[in-house]
Structure formats: structure tokens, C-alpha cells
UniProtKB/TrEMBL annotation:
GO terms for biological process: negative regulation of DNA-templated transcription. Residues 62-245 form the IclR-ED domain. It comes from Paenarthrobacter aurescens (strain TC1). The keyword Phosphoprotein does not apply. Pfam families: HTH_IclR (PF09339), IclR_C (PF01614). Residues 2-61 form the HTH iclR-type domain. SUPFAM superfamilies: GAF domain-like, Winged helix' DNA-binding domain. InterPro entries: GAF-like_dom_sf (IPR029016), HTH_MetabolicPath_Reg (IPR050707), Tscrpt_reg_IclR_C (IPR014757), Tscrpt_reg_IclR_N (IPR005471), WH-like_DNA-bd_sf (IPR036388), WH_DNA-bd_sf (IPR036390). This is Transcriptional regulator, IclR family.
């Protein structure tokens, strides 16, 4: 790689930390001020950097354009796969990845349980909108008006004693999911299975997918299921970070 390119990249790294004047940048560079000025002018011409009214340089719109395109090219399933495979390896339980496709929540990846009892779910199947934990996570990030429209149009078949049976009950649970940052299916869709799910966010912070751990009730109590939550959330946050999301905690660190 040419020295000029390396120096330009170093300058962009400095500006990523904070805006700076030519003199400030030159004081940290290993080359003459005129070289720094020449590199800055070249990047300014291509919109990689811009100057404010105080003649401080900062990152320009071209960088944001390229970073946006780069993130759009990242397939969620491909990005999530190694993290969810690791989660599956650590817990030994079934792990699902789900996302909206049209008006339905669809399982787009699955990692089988390491135990003899397994889920019959498979990639391509749809998840119940009012009882699946992944669906609750995805719905919780929607505007209230859209939540209300979807909730009003569902068929609330009572499968187990824990199944939600009204739009009001679903909407109340979605508020709780949004506040706590995760959802459960407490044996609501099937009496013999319960699961927890957490959100996966893109660079804008929008929830674009959800991942879950599903366990037969006979293998793990509800309290035991909740003990998997830190592992699950660590995995979904790592996926979100790879998609460009920066949490408030990381941003303030």
C-alpha cells in the first residue's frame, strides 16, 4: 500500500476521533504540513472530509455513503451465523434466527439442540405473531399504530393456559418487551416448549431480526431458561455490533 494512502487513512482515523485543524493534524503527522494539506485537499475534493466555519476538518458525506452501502451488503444470516453457532455450542439448546418477510415472521436460520429432544421447527416456517418470543421482539420495535393494526387482525387461538387471547394482552406485553429488551414464550405456543428471544439491531438501531433459545419444559424450568438470557443477549448484541449498531453503553464508555 502506498505511503500517501496510508497517511490519508491515518488522517481519517484522527478525524474519526474528533474534528481538527490543519495545524493540529500536522502536529501529529510524521510528514511536513504541506503534505498533510495536500492529502486533506484531495480528500475534501472527493467529499471524504469537509471543513466547518472554524476551518476544522471532519469526516465527510462520502464516508457515510460508503459505510451505509457496506452495511447494506452484509447479510444478517451470514453475520449472525458464527455468533449463534457459538451460542448453540455453549448452551446446547435450539437456537433460532427470525425476521419479518412481508407480514409474517419467518425462521431464517436454526441450530439444532445437542440433546435427544429436539424442536420440529425448520428454516422457512412462520412463527406465531402473538405467542412466539421472536415475533414479540420484532413487533415491539414497531410504531404503536402498526402494532395495534396487527394485533387487531390476529386469530387468538388459546393453545395453552398461558396463550395470550386478546389484542389488549398482546399490546401490553409488547410494551413490557420493549422496556426490558427481551421476550419470552412461556409455553404459550406449545405446552411442552418455552423460549426466550432478544433483538438484533442494524446501524440505525432498528430491530431487524431476533434470536431465541428454545428448550423443552421437561429439560429446563422457566427459572433455568432465564439463566440463558445473559448468553443470548451477549450474542445478539455482538451480531448488532457487527451490523454497525453502537449501544448507549459502548458510546458512553
Amino acid at each position: 500500500m502506498s505511503q500517501s494512502l496510508m497517511r490519508a487513512i491515518d488522517l481519517l482515523g484522527e478525524l474519526a476521533a474528533k474534528p481538527a485543524t490543519l495545524d493540529e493534524l500536522a502536529s501529529k503527522a510524521a510528514v511536513h504540513k504541506t503534505t498533510v494539506m495536500r492529502l486533506l485537499h484531495a480528500m475534501e475534493e472527493k467529499r471524504f472530509v469537509v471543513r466547518d466555519e472554524d476551518q476544522r476538518f471532519m469526516l465527510g458525506s462520502k464516508l457515510f455513503e460508503l459505510s451505509s452501502l457496506a452495511l447494506e451488503q452484509r447479510d444478517i444470516r451470514k453475520v449472525a451465523h458464527p455468533h449463534l453457532a457459538e451460542l448453540n455450542g455453549r448452551t446446547g439448546h435450539t437456537v433460532h434466527l427470525a425476521a419479518f418477510e412481508g407480514n409474517e415472521v419467518v425462521y431464517i436460520d436454526k441450530f439444532e439442540s445437542h440433546h435427544p429432544v429436539r424442536m420440529y421447527s425448520r428454516i422457512g416456517l412462520t412463527a406465531s405473531l402473538h405467542s412466539a418470543a421472536v415475533s414479540k421482539v420484532l413487533l415491539s420495535d414497531m410504531p404503536r399504530s402498526r402494532q395495534e393494526k396487527i394485533a387487531a387482525g390476529l386469530d387468538y387461538v388459546k393453545v395453552t393456559e398461558n396463550t395470550l387471547t386478546s389484542p389488549e394482552a398482546l399490546l401490553a406485553e409488547l410494551e413490557q418487551v420493549k422496556e426490558q429488551g427481551w421476550a419470552h414464550d412461556n409455553a404459550e405456543h406449545e405446552a411442552f416448549v418455552h423460549c426466550i428471544a432478544a433483538p438484533i439491531r442494524d446501524a440505525s438501531g432498528a430491530v431487524v431480526a431476533a434470536a431465541s433459545c428454545s428448550v423443552p419444559v421437561v429439560m429446563l424450568s422457566y427459572e433455568g431458561l432465564l439463566e440463558l438470557l445473559p448468553d443470548l443477549k451477549a450474542s445478539t448484541e455482538a451480531i448488532s455490533n457487527d451490523l454497525g449498531w453502537i449501544s448507549h453503553e459502548r458510546n458512553s464508555a
